[in-house]
Design a protein that fits this description.
The protein has 654 residues and is of the alpha+beta class. The protein contains 13 helices and 35 strands.
């Protein structure tokens, strides 16, 4: 029997529970020694405070916590613990002390002692400010040199460091109510983590302009602290000890554009398997296929022939995603590829070209490697593939696009992907990356303009290519791992909920086309046996599709249909979209949380349509039947719905 954990997230490993600590109107969540969701009077003030140790490849150690002592009273809580971060090359231990009080004051102190020489890219505190209610709003910055600065948190995403040499940051959390976060022990600076899809601004220790990696000498202690203070007490009527978890109200609003074209990525190694399961690929009905041609890996005639066959079998638009070898003469590489495409009988509808040098991230202020210019690259692509739409930007992530912006006048469309597990891989952090997508779109439009086309993807939970290290991270334990190709949640209901939320956010902001995942493999929608374990799917005969298959198959059919705004009273918990096609309205809703949620629809929708749901109770049926959503539809008899964790509902209205 398949476990609920497998149904939800594809793995029996679960995120460890957090513990909520309260002192009057102040509340925090303690998560393996770190603090998350620091709230005052129910308002999120800080998203996180954590003491981190990162190795020379930016890998973050999971601290081993011991001697944990927690004391709580009505107006105060304290936490003390010891922790160790180590591998076979280094070891560092630290003592932590946390105190919170009902006036909103909070302190987190750490004394760290290297027990060997410790090579690190970063060791110390990070502080995360949330995005919602903060982006574009004032902040007072006190610098380490004594200067004070009146500024704003960036609204469009800053590719550089918005603030440097930071001692404290003050921002308004309610009318006439300010929170001040002070950091001691080193110089701090801020980066805009929305670059990587994180829903936060991160203030961290040790400026990137300093050399890294660096060595912490054996036996030399490090002392750092983060404190929070609130300018005044809340009025008594506003004080509350918890955030209310009430019913989420949903309404269908006004027309809001058209549904983007939904496509999927085709990694070269998955093309043969896609042709073997054409029945399911046709059921997915992708409107475009992003076909990988990585000249660094020797892709050529064989791959192009497979892509030709896929295009002919599905009728989908074929987009060649071309990555050069990195030579200074891209015209020779691209013209040779165009000749091979012609010989294979493949005429791509579009090509998107990227330099090999752009596949690795370059930190602000660091020199870029020698490479051809955008002008040389795009001119060579136009000459090699006349008549095809030309896309450009980055085959990696928005981060790199924001740091090296191509000239819009040379392109038909701009493109990039996203990865939701660059900095954190727990369920809530990954789902929260949906918050940053509207800012990425707004920022791209700000520097690329509104006239150029805009396509995103292929994106998925796993990491296609690690732009920040030498390789994607291994995941032999079927766990949640940052920057790994293998994310078990791809196979669970989590991905169905995330995929709907992802498409809804991009559709709402006018992206013309969205590509997700792959036909099969680590990013797949259709099961095939792989060289990594896939619990339940490896053992149950007839389990052929993952839950997200139904979301992509359903929404791909709505390309170009009229969109309507879906108004949610708690978009971070329940999101969705509504489309009008064939004379009927489809309302899609996604529970983005691991909790059962009550939803209130407009009363006029009761008895006005049919509903089908992707949820844990139906897991075996929905994974074995690609037509499950249509077969499972039943009459909608009430405006009060219950959506289980990470479930998706499709409501068909007359």
């Amino acid at each position: 029997m398949v476990s609920r954990a497998i149904k939800l997230c594809g793995t029996d490993i679960v995120d460890p529970p957090t513990r909520v600590l309260r002192a009057g109107p102040l509340s925090v969540e303690l998560d393996n020694g770190a603090l998350r969701y620091v709230r005052f009077g129910g308002t999120e003030v800080l998203r996180a405070i954590a003491f981190l140790v990162r190795d020379e490849n930016w890998g973050t150690f999971t601290p081993e916590i011991r001697d944990l002592v927690i004391e709580e009273a009505a107006d105060r809580f304290t936490v003390r613990y010891s922790a160790t971060c180590s591998d076979d090359r280094r070891r560092l231990s630290y003592e932590a002390a946390i105190t919170g009080q009902s006036d909103g004051s909070l302190s987190f102190e750490a004394i760290a002692t290297p027990e060997t020489d410790v090579v690190t890219n970063r060791t110390g505190f990070i502080v995360l400010h949330p995005v919602e209610g903060v982006a574009g709003y004032p902040v007072r910055v006190a610098h380490v040199d004594g200067r004070e600065e009146q500024a704003v948190f960036p609204d469009t995403i800053d590719p550089m460091c918005p603030f440097q040499g930071i001692r404290s940051l003050s921002h308004q959390i309610a009318p006439n109510l300010w929170a001040t976060c002070t950091m001691q022990g080193d110089a701090f600076e801020m980066e805009d983590q929305r670059n990587w899809s994180d829903a936060s601004y991160k203030t961290y220790v040790r400026p990137l302009a300093e050399p890294w990696p660096y060595t912490l000498p054996n036996g030399e202690p490090i002392r750092q602290s983060v404190t929070l203070s609130i300018s005044r007490q809340l009025p008594s009527a506003s004080s509350k000890n918890a955030v209310s978890d009430g019913t989420v109200a949903i309404a269908i609003g006004q027309e809001s554009g058209t549904m983007p074209a939904i496509g999927i990525g085709v990694p070269a190694e998955e093309a043969p398997y896609a042709l073997e399961r054409l029945d399911l690929l046709k059921r997915l009905a992708p409107k475009w296929l992003v076909c990988q041609v990585d000249l660094r890996q020797g892709h050529g005639c064989r791959e192009l022939e497979l892509y030709r066959d896929l295009g002919q079998a599905t009728g989908a638009e074929i987009v060649l995603e071309i990555i050069t070898r990195g030579s200074m003469a891209p015209q020779s590489e691209l013209s040779a590829l165009a000749t091979e495409a012609s010989e294979a009988g493949l005429k791509p509808d579009a090509v998107a070209v990227f330099l090999a040098q752009h596949m690795k991230s370059v930190l602000p202020g660091s020199p870029w490697p020698e490479m051809p210019s955008f002008e040389e690259l795009y001119s060579a692509a136009r000459a090699a593939f006349p008549g095809a739409r030309l896309g450009g930007g980055m085959a990696t992530y928005f981060t790199e696009l924001n740091r090296k912006r191509p000239p819009a006048a040379l392109l038909d469309y701009v493109t990039h992907t996203t990865c939701p597990s660059v900095h954190a891989a727990d369920d809530r952090s990954v789902m929260e990356t949906l918050e940053s997508l509207p800012y990425q779109i707004r920022s791209t439009r700000a520097f690329m303009g509104h006239e150029i086309g805009y396509r995103i993807g292929p994106s998925q939970l796993g990491c296609r290519e690690n732009a920040y290290g030498n390789a994607t991270a291994p995941n032999e334990g079927n766990a949640r791992v940052c920057l790994s190709r293998i994310d078990p949640r791809q196979r669970g209901l989590f991905n169905a909920a995330w995929s709907l939320g992802y498409i809804a956010r991009l559709a709402r902001d006018g992206v013309e086309a969205v590509a997700l995942g792959a036909p099969s493999g680590p990013f797949g929608f259709v099961y095939r046996r792989c060289d990594f374990a896939q619990p339940y799917f490896d053992d149950v005969e007839g389990a052929v599709v993952y839950p997200a298959f139904h979301v992509v198959a359903g929404l791909s059919q709505a390309a170009g249909a009229q969109l309507f705004e879906v108004e949610s009273s708690a978009r971070g918990k329940v999101d969705g979209l509504a489309v009008r096609r064939s004379g009927k309205t489809e309302l899609w809703l996604s529970n983005l949380t691991d909790q059962d949620i009550s939803i209130l629809l407009p009363t006029e929708l009761a008895n006005a349509g049919r509903i089908s749901t992707l949820d844990a109770a139906a897991f075996e049926r929905l994974t074995s039947d690609p037509n499950y959503l249509d077969k499972a539809a039943g009459d909608l008899t009430t405006a009060d719905l219950q959506l289980d964790a990470y479930s998706v509902a499709r409501i068909e209205l007359a």
